[in-house]
Amino acid sequence: MSIIKKLALAAGVSALLSSAAYADLSGKVIGFSQIGSESGWRAAETSVTKSEAEKLGIDLKFADAQQKQENQIKAIRGFIAQGVAAILIAPVVATGWEEVLTEAKEANIPVILLDRGIDAPQDLYLTSVASDQVKEGRVAGEWLVGAVGDKDCKIVELQGTVGSSPAINRKQGFEEGIKDHANLSIIRSQTGDFTRAKGKEVMEGFLKAEDGGKGICAVYAHNDDMAVGAIQAIKDAGLKPGSDILVVSIDGVPDIFQAMVAGEANATVELTPNMAGPAFAALDAYLTDGTQPEKFIITESKLYTPADDAQGEYDRRKGLGY
Amino acid sequence: MNRALRPLVATTAIFALAYLAAVVQFPAMFSTRVMGNFLTDNAFLGIAAVGMTFVIISGGIDLSVGAVIGFTTVLNAVLIMWLGLHPLLAFAISLGVAAAFGAVMGAAIHYLKVPSFIVTLAGMFLARGGASVLSPDSIGIKHELYTTISKSYILLPGGGRLTVIGMIMLLVFAFGIVLAHRTRFGSYVYALGGSEVSAGLMGVPVARTTILIYTLSATLAGLAGIVFSLYTSAGYSLSALGVELDAIAAVVIGGTLLTGGYGFIAGTFIGVMLQGLVQTYIVFDGTLSSWWTKIVIGGLLFLFILLQRLVFSAAAPRRKVFWKT
Fold first, then answer.
1. ipTM of this predicted structure
2. What pLDDT, in 10s, does the model give residues B143-176?
3. Are A126 and A255 part of one and the same domain?
4. Do the domain assignments include residue B320?
């Protein structure tokens, strides 16, 4: 059984049994040092972590670092002084963690990294929970392959911020997803900087360059925000997004589900804000009988289409702070 | 009791009361570990705040402090990791660069008669921009000396750690106290803050003193940068954003008059510790938004500005006018 299936199973079981499955974490004090609330996704991660902790009866100590590493280090030291049972960190930068994590290790406090890695010896943390960005791109590509069948399909791509790891990995993954299918080809690819405004602007350019968009069969955006911008541009050009031009993107933010409900988006691959769920599961096993979790826990990259109760998914997400 | 010492006493009393209240709620806060953390985690802020105290006593302001810290961390990282220099040599170069930077700012303030606010604002942009040009990414520093320093500490009873950088901060405060209260330079700084014109008439070398004050502040900011790079074992252009404002807050909460001429280095120490206390309390509580730190510090600032007004208007009818009419 793959690690992902195991995790999915663990998450499912935990949802059913809730506190019973995590008897050991109930009443435990766990510190969570969050980077800040710079993006909607991060705000959602914070609120999901808090609600997961509440479900399990964990006394979660939350510290928002306001994007500053020194605040994160201070918070971790504070957690150690408090004698917490475990520490979760979403590290703001990769460097500079050895000293404080060594202090945690010496105090026998397990540390779990969420959604980002660090440059430090692996024995300083119990495990790291993150998504597989290449896989996210691949899932999006494979969906498109299935959706167009044997027809020819010219794709335009809206890339994330140049040089950023999600942009590089999601591009690579998508290309892997479509590479065995000669009828699919990426004809234009440009950066939309992960923003809605830039996504719209670049899509407008694509549409102009491709004879008002007649030759374009699908748009692949590295995140939902750019896809939402592109949808606007397609509508402005007098075409119907979702049918004239297919729209596939990554992240799973509420707005893309709203677009699906309106029939304007076709698929999104979720970057789950629930990094804490798998982290708590691993921690529970470790504290119960010393089970060493995998060093790198990969979260599920789940595909959503309008058939997956888009309205319900929107309702579930809209209150999370995205 | 000397009336002039009242702000210092008030700060200390507030710190003691706040600490007591925190300990009543979270007994674990009364531990050598937490006290050691106060020193280690606020070392860079404390060192920079000593320089800031001198600047503010002299009637000026230095907004470049945080940026100089950030610049120094990057410069250190570049010198050590890219050019392969020994850290001690890199430290010397960094301090030299910071000192020269401060001297230029001091000279500009004095000779061009530009307010320190403007000159150091320019300095802030230059240093922060320079750091980002050197390297926009965080550079990890891996060197034996760094590992040795971060691993050496005096273990206090109860598991607390008095780290090297914590000790550096304490030494800087001791140095600052002696410099302010026991040297000629110190009395020049106070005289300058009282009134630049009368200081000049009394024979204070205004140009030299001004330049030295900003050199001192920038050098200490450079030292704070070195300490910061030891703290995180990295150089990062965006590190220590806004530390200049935290330092100013610590200085004012410590009883130094923002208009100059009056203040204590020791008070600044309490001001720094008070900020550390608020942050630690929020981490221990774990449910409060970390922005409450800013709210509490803002409230304290208001309180102290008010307190100073009251103390000074009641205490000294013969005292000088604090603002020019």
1. 0.85
2. 999 989 988 899 998 888 999 999 999 999 999 9
3. no
4. no
